[in-house]
Design a protein that fits this description.
This protein is an alpha+beta fold. It is 27% helix and 24% strand. A hairpin with a 5-residue loop joins β21 and β22. The chain is globular. The protein starts with 8 loop residues before the first strand and ends with a strand.
Length: 1212
């Protein structure tokens, strides 16, 4: 055929391509669009590319109740028709061929009955659903050439064939079996056109004909939609009617323009009969110079710049236009494409407490109502039967938590929100529990796990009591600090007592220091805060998350080691751990680790354990290895036990992870006892409350679930789960999308403590049973079925917690003073006489009903390379423009800000949005950005950042609380530019959960490497000050010629070189008292005749309070406000343009009354060294306090690097 020059042709009745010669046919491309082996050969032999073929190159388009695809010859081929009478699709032959090539995955949750046994022997029964993945089954894939009901029936049949007989799952005292009367939850995974076929979603939506009857559903900014969108007319003119209303045009004129557009686009003249398409509206706007925004599924599909703007959303067969100009402008600014969402910080909810909810009575009105969670589907159907589509708020992918319906004036005659909540099964008991606890926590309909977690957090915070210093303790502190301020060394008659670590974020012993009022105020404003409400959660840098949090967790120990006779003979015993996981927390002997993003995995080089340890011992069986279940991370409690028992050697522990902060080991004991006592007689919920909150600690991935409904299957967002909801005589398709919310927070260390302690208790039981030569048969999480020898029965029931650290000495006595060679570590003792184990005679009901595999895990720890690529400036800029991140370092005056401003300008020219942040207003204004605290609160805490690249300037000034929040952005793939100088001061009060952060912690952290992508450029040439000054202060840093001199010699050299002794308008000091005095003296010396006096009564020496000022045009003042107000920012310099008896006018137009000026502004002749970072001074500069006991080489470096000319610098 090749020799004869035969070319590919479409097969009749098919979309495949083939070679045809006589009666011979060789297929080159199948209906699926994939090349056959013959097709691949033909390409090579002929040297020609294969033509495009196959159904998979396109998506079916729905018009009314008919779906079609475009055939190779340009005709439309009908694939299937929706039969409204039967509620199913009818497939054509073409459709059968087309859809059998398309497959969908189905996610199934099977109904289960959970039967468990309480500690008093009574039995309880619960009903729930279990994902089939938990049973080791894979999602099912079904071709689409069957109707939806048939596909779901087939999925159910396939899963039932694979389900095991009897119990599906066993854990502790619970057995899960299939509920024959329960409802299956089967969801279809929709295929996103963007991801699956490369065809834009807009291609499907833009060519949809609209003009059908409007649906009263939930839209973005529903009140801003025009009234005409909801009018019903016997024609298809909904689009031109709305356009004419918004633009105030003649309807006929709009229709004529749309006809012109249709002829150009489709070469037809039928839009008035079948409806206008969104693409026609887009081209109409282009033709008339208008802007356009098209939305679908709350996402922007397409935009067109211009003014005025036409904005509309497409839903089912109708378009809804927005009338409000402000909303149209906001939608035009809405970003297209995927948006990465961050998990929002906890905030006060607007949901009222449940006592204010009213029972739902089938009447729509504004307010909050409740129904039983099992009745939610009935209430939703009630709305849909009335052509009202409430928003369904989801708990997870399957369960709704409520309905929300926005009432509008045009439809409901009133404005407001109707919210219908589902109450969980145990709502009444939870309400009574919270009343008995009496901790000020109100119930708002949450499930038991969330309520239990909130209660624990509230009790933990409530147990932290402020320590009030006695007169004797204050006297001791004053004597220890020589009756001076601990920060500036000044004496004051009004010292304040400062917590060295912020009280609101620390636990344990409270440490104090005396501070003057000004230093206390400055430290309070600047010290680190995490903006995080969960004091127990850890926060991890991205690489550490991948190495630790994402690794396999310790598995539950469920296993049958030896077959038990079918009828249990006498003599079998069962031992279990009393309240295993709760007691793991209550009787914890190790401080609870709380990690921050500066903590990295370290290779172990010393015989010392971390809070978490990576163990690589070869796994055989947890039975013989006393609870060890395979290589991976362990909490210290388990590593100690395995070293003590001789199972693990030091060489097997390769890496450790140690936290910056630790909470007291007993911090959870009292809260857990309080929670349990408040349940009273209900031990089932008492146990369930604690176990369920521990279960929450096992969940690291956080998702937001959104349900959208439509009668059009083609409205399905990519990657959604599709369900069919039937109501009355109609149905809608529910599309459930799950959006991952990015966070760096995890409670895995706490969960590992529980699971590893559980494994240790199992190991201690196994060790005791082994020493007594008992035969072990079955294991269920925290219980063991065994048969003891009559001569040497185990003494498990007699053991106390305080016996567990000497178990080997009790059961394997050794010679006095001798130590076993394989006893490589001691176990931390638990000083408690409670008994950890319970032993009873086994019954037939205790036997396992499943045959689980041997529990195991394996994980190979991947060490991260932390090498840096040091780049030249041109190469660094090239990499940044290609999307890489960068760290730019250099001492003051080397042009870091100027260099990166040029890079940012080129990034913005390439269409990237770049945000700029710094710690102080001074530095952020110089770089052209905002303060880091403001940006973090607005973007990170609120859940989404809209920039493509973030430049963080003066990185050495940012505290751990800000880095904790900014590190979340590394999970999103954001590009970073970092600049700064680590030779300057570290942040004030830089602590995390009560632990101070070492000065070089961020500089040496893996977080810095991750943020910069391993790229750095170092600027070394002087760009600002003269060479004499630059050479001197550059010699003061690490590696400089004067760094090893010592402070006294360095100051002496500076005084010999820098000899200015005149009047200086810029002065740097350590003491606030000296700052106030210098400001007063210089203000009086420099004031011209006619200066206006702003009088302040009272003591001017108290902190940074207002002091009397003489003002005149040209004087420079400094902003003094914790929050920006009246146009004034803290630490920024302002020049007075004019001053009168009534007002002070600043250059730039800001006008202040005298009262406001005294509140917001201060004299700027003298500043502290700590507050001047990020500033540059023109004119003479004097460095004071050079013999002060707190003066260091860093003070000398920071002070000198603020100036520009050596001849205008002096030292006092």
């Amino acid at each position: 055929m090749i020799a004869a020059g035969v070319g590919p042709a479409r097969l009749k009745g098919s979309e495949g391509q083939a070679l045809k010669l006589g009666r011979s046919t060789i297929k080159l491309i199948g209906n699926d669009g994939q090349a056959t082996q013959a097709g691949k050969y033909w390409t090579i032999a002929s040297g020609q590319p294969l033509p495009v073929g196959g159904f998979m190159q396109q998506d079916a388009v729905r018009e009314g109740n008919v779906e079609t695809i475009k055939l190779a010859d340009g005709r439309k081929g009908v694939t299937r028709k929706w039969d409204e009478a039967t509620g199913v699709y009818k497939f054509t032959k073409l459709g059968n061929d087309y859809y059998k090539l398309l497959r969908r995955n189905y996610v199934a949750h099977v109904p289960v009955v959970i039967q468990g046994k309480r500690k008093d022997g009574s039995v309880y029964t619960l009903k729930s659903h279990m994902p089939v993945e938990k049973l080791g089954l894979k999602p099912k894939s079904i071709p689409l050439n069957m109707g939806s009901p048939q596909r779901r029936a087939r999925v159910k049949q396939m899963i039932e064939e694979e389900l095991p007989d009897g119990a599906l799952y066993e854990v502790s005292d619970e057995a899960w079996t299939l509920d024959p009367d329960g409802s299956w939850k089967i969801s279809e995974e929709t295929v996103g056109t963007r991801k699956a076929t490369g065809v834009a979603e807009s291609h499907v939506v833009l060519d949809r004909r609209v003009g059908a009857r409007p649906v009263f559903t939930q839209f973005l900014f529903a009140e801003a939609l025009c009234d005409e969108a909801f009018e019903e007319h016997p024609d298809k003119l909904c689009c031109p009617r709305q356009i004419a209303s918004i633009l105030r045009l003649d309807l006929g004129e709009v229709c004529r323009d749309l006809l012109t557009v249709e002829r150009a686009l489709y070469q037809t003249e039928t839009w008035e009969e079948i409806g206008c398409s969104p693409r026609m509206v887009l081209e109409y706007c282009r033709m008339n110079g208008l802007g356009c925004v098209i939305l679908h599924n709350e996402s922007v599909v397409d935009t067109l710049p211009g003014t005025p703007i036409l904005a509309f959303t497409v839903h089912e067969g109708h378009s809804y236009f927005y009338k409000t100009p402000r909303v149209r402008q906001a939608l035009m600014s809405r970003r297209t494409g995927e948006i990465t969402h961050l998990k929002k910080g906890q905030r006060c909810t607007s949901t009222p407490i449940t006592s204010e909810w009213k029972p739902w009575a089938d009447e729509i009105e504004a307010g909050h109502f409740f129904v039983d969670e099992n009745d939610m589907a009935t209430v939703r159907a009630w709305f849909l039967d009335r052509n009202k589509h409430p928003k369904v708020m989801m708990k997870d992918e399957l369960r709704p938590r409520g309905l929300l319906y926005n009432l509008t004036k045009r439809v409901d005659g009133q404005v407001g929100t109707c919210v219908i909540h589902s109450l969980p099964e145990n709502a009444g008991e939870i309400i009574e529990w919270l009343k008995r606890l009496d901790i000020g926590l109100e119930y708002r309909g949450e499930g038991l796990p969330n309520v239990a977690l909130k209660v624990l957090q509230r009790l933990v915070k409530g147990n932290r009591e402020r320590e009030w210093l006695t007169g004797e303790r204050k006297a001791e502190l004053l004597e220890a600090y020589d009756f001076k301020c601990a920060m500036c060394d000044s004496r004051s008659s009004s010292m304040e007592w400062d917590h060295i670590c912020r009280l609101s974020e620390s636990f344990g012993e409270q440490e104090f220091q005396p501070l003057c009022v000004a230093c206390h105020r400055e430290k309070t404003e600047k010290e680190a805060r995490s903006y995080d409400e969960d004091q127990l959660a850890s926060h991890f840098e991205k690489a550490t998350w991948e190495q630790y949090v994402a690794s396999p967790r310790p598995p539950p120990l469920v296993y049958r080691a030896k077959q038990v006779p079918e009828e249990l003979p006498p003599g079998f015993m069962i031992a279990d751990v009393r309240r295993c996981r709760k007691n793991a927390l209550e009787y914890c002997t190790h401080p609870l680790p709380v990690f921050c993003p500066l903590d990295d995995v370290k290779r172990r080089t010393e015989p010392a354990l971390g809070d978490l340890n990576f163990v690589t011992t070869k796994y055989k069986s947890f039975v013989s290895q006393l609870g060890y279940a395979g290589p991976g991370w362990q909490h210290r409690v388990q590593t100690e036990w395995l070293l003590y028992a001789g199972i693990v050697a030091w060489a097997d522990i390769t890496h450790t992870l140690t936290a910056t902060a630790h909470l007291p080991a007993s911090i959870l004991a009292d809260p857990l006892r309080t929670m349990e006592a408040a349940w009273g007689e209900d031990d089932r919920l008492a146990k369930l409350a604690v176990n369920s909150l521990i279960g929450l600690w096992a969940i690291d991935d956080c998702y937001s679930h959104k349900l959208r409904s439509s009668t059009y299957e083609s409205d399905a967002p990519g990657g959604a789960l599709k369900q069919t909801f039937h109501h009355g005589e109609g149905l809608v398709y529910d599309f459930i999308t799950s959006t991952r919310l990015i966070t760096n927070a995890s409670c895995r260390p706490l969960h590992d403590l529980c699971m590893c302690t559980e494994a240790v208790r199992m190991g201690q039981m196994l060790y005791s049973l082994r020493q007594a030569r008992a035969v072990v048969y079955e294991f269920k999480t925290d219980s063991v079925l065994y048969k003891p020898l009559r001569r040497t029965p185990p003494k498990l029931a007699e053991l106390k917690f305080r016996d567990l650290d000497t178990l080997r000495s009790q059961l394997e006595p050794s010679a006095e003073g001798a130590r076993r060679l394989d006893e490589r570590h001691l176990v931390s003792p638990i000083p408690c006489d409670a008994k950890p184990f319970r032993v009873m005679e086994a019954t037939q009901g205790d036997l396992m009903k499943t045959k689980p595999q041997l529990p195991s895990r394996t994980w190979e720890l991947e060490e991260r390379c932390r090498t840096w690529s040091t780049l030249a400036t041109d190469e660094a800029e090239r990499r940044v423009l290609e999307g890489e991140s960068l760290l730019c370092t250099g001492i003051a005056g080397t042009g870091k800000t100027t260099y990166l401003q040029g890079v940012v300008e080129r990034l913005r020219a390439n269409g990237k949005r770049v945000d700029i942040i710094s710690k102080t207003h001074v530095a952020s204004n110089r770089a052209g950005g905002v303060t880091a605290d403001h940006w973090v609160r607005r973007h990170v805490i609120n859940g989404a950042s809209s920039c493509d690249c973030l430049w963080v300037d003066e990185i050495s000034q940012l505290d751990v609380g800000l880095w904790l929040q900014l590190s979340k952005l590394t999970y999103t793939g954001m590009q970073f530019l970092l600049s700064g100088d680590f030779n300057q001061f570290s942040p004030i009060g830089n602590s995390f959960r009560g632990s101070m952060i070492p000065e070089n912690a961020f500089e040496s952290s893996g977080l810095l490497h991750t943020l910069a992508g391993g790229n750095r450029v170092e600027l070394v040439e002087c760009r600002r000050s003269d060479a004499v000054l630059f050479d001197f202060y550059s010699s003061l840093i690490t590696g400089g010629s004067r760094f090893e001199l010592g402070l006294a010699d360095a100051v002496r050299s500076a005084k010999e070189l820098l000899t200015y002794d005149g009047l200086a308008e810029h002065n740097l000091v350590i003491s606030h008292q000296r700052r106030i005095r210098l400001n007063r003296e210089l203000n009086q010396q420099l004031a011209p005749m006619g200066a206006i006096r702003l009088e302040v009564t009272g003591k001017a020496s108290r902190g940074n309070s207002a002091q009397t000022m003489l003002l005149w045009p040209g004087i420079v003042l400094i902003g003094c406000l914790a929050l920006s107000k009246h146009g004034i920012q803290n630490g920024v310099l302002y020049t007075v343009e004019s001053v009168t008896r009534e007002a002070v006018v600043l250059v730039g137009g800001v006008s202040l009354t005298h009262a406001h000026a005294k509140t917001c502004l201060r004299l700027s002749y003298a500043q502290t060294y700590a507050s001047c970072q990020g500033s540059e001074f023109d004119g003479p500069l004097m460095l004071h306090d050079t013999s002060h006991k707190f003066f260091t080489l860093k003070h000398l470096f920071v002070g000198l690097s603020r100036a520009k000319v050596a001849s205008e610098v002096g030292l006092v």
